[in-house]
């Protein structure tokens, strides 16, 4: 069976600094017509950062989209010119948000966040053998974060309590569980 939906027309609704919103008119495989509301994103990186003591470094910050505090792994969007340099972007985010760097960065997963309506592609890296940066890059001007260092067991408890509700963070913690088995 043919599954592809052919775009007949695209209407751009909004173009911002982080993403673009469009509505596509599509022809379905059976010849029917439908509309698809889509978000196009430049992509992002996220880092499962482990201290020399084996603790996870998490970031606590307020997320306006859910109107609450969120506990997450260090992460951020790709900046202009970083497409194709995702490892460098991951190291930049790690340093900006945690003050650490590493020479040991391993790609764990390359995945999409919400394929039903968004093309945001994330790369999840494992960073261990962390080294403190003497003068780390500054955080983004609009970024207010607090660092947490937790054990795997504490991280699992934060998931169970709902304090960690971020998908990429849950995925990273579960990846760590698999790595430690």
TrEMBL record:
Keyword hit for Hydrolase: yes
Cofactor: Mg(2+)
Residue stretches making up the Nudix hydrolase domain: 39-172
Alphabetized Pfam families for the sequence: NUDIX
Listed GO MF terms: hydrolase activity
Protein's UniProt name: NUDIX hydrolase
Domain of life: Bacteria
């Amino acid at each position: 069976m043919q599954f592809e939906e052919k775009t007949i027309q695209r209407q751009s609704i909004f173009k911002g600094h982080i993403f673009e919103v469009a509505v596509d008119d599509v022809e379905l495989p059976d010849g029917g017509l439908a509309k698809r509301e889509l978000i196009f994103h430049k992509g992002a990186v996220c880092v499962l950062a482990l201290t020399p003591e084996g603790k996870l470094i998490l970031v606590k910050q307020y997320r306006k989209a859910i109107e609450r505090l969120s506990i997450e792994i260090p992460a951020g969007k790709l900046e202009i010119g970083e497409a194709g340099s995702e490892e460098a972007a991951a190291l930049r985010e790690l340093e900006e948000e945690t003050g650490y760097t590493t020479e040991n960065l391993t790609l764990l997963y390359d995945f999409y966040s919400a394929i039903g309506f968004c093309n945001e592609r994330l790369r999840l890296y494992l960073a261990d053998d962390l080294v403190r940066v003497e003068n780390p890059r500054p955080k983004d001007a609009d970024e207010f974060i607090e660092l947490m260092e937790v054990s795997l067991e504490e991280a699992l408890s934060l998931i169970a309590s709902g304090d960690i509700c971020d998908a990429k963070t849950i995925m990273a913690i579960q990846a760590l569980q698999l790595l430690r088995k």
